[in-house]
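We were asked to recover a plausible sequence for a given structure. The inputs and outputs are reproduced exactly as logged, with field labels preserved.

PROBLEM: sequence recovery
POSITIONS: 194
GIVEN STRUCTURE:
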């Protein structure tokens, strides 16, 4: 009776490469799904671009079938939560954030103009008072003006910080829009090729 061999048939390089690609694809998809879960758990805003950054994958991958639906579900879940938050007054809408950004920019411009005018008025009044007051009165007046200047500088810094935060929000929204446009172009191109 001939001996049976239990050797595995050797795989071709193409089969090895295919298996490696499948493992890599599964790993990347797993990282995307984990990133979505982590972002939901940490209550971080989910966008396609943010998920791609978090998972360290290309932005087109997050629009792939199977992943896009999961991300859309997570975004819908956050949007529903956001709607509940808005109704309860805990969170503002995107339109409200954009309005806040516009108002902050206008306020910064106004504060800068007002600051310049106040400085000019302070110089004029200080010059007039120097002629009329003694040293003690001048020191008191300088202290008052210094405090007013500090108050205005603090208000300007706060407005600048708010402006920076709102600009970052606008950048995130622009990233989402760019990623969505890229995905749409690919989908149209794929449909045309099919």
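RECOVERED SEQUENCE:
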């Amino acid at each position: 009776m001939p001996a049976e061999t239990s050797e595995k048939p050797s795989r071709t390089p193409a089969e090895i490469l295919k298996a490696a690609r499948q493992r890599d694809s599964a790993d990347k998809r797993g990282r995307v799904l984990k990133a979505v879960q982590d972002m939901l758990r940490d209550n971080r805003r989910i966008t396609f671009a943010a998920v791609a950054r978090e998972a360290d994958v290309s932005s087109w991958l997050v629009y792939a079938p199977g992943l896009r639906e999961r991300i859309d579900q997570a975004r819908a879940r956050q949007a529903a939560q956001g709607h509940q938050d808005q109704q309860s007054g805990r969170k503002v809408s995107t339109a409200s954030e954009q309005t806040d950004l516009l108002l902050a920019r206008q306020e910064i411009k106004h504060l800068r103009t007002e600051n310049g005018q106040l400085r000019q008025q302070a110089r004029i009044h200080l010059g007039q008072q120097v002629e009329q007051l003694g040293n003690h009165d001048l020191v008191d007046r300088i202290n008052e003006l210094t405090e007013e200047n500090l108050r205005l500088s603090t208000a300007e810094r706060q407005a600048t910080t708010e402006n920076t935060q709102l600009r970052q929000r606008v950048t995130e929204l622009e990233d989402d829009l760019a990623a969505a446009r890229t995905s749409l172009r690919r989908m149209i191109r794929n449909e045309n090729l099919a």
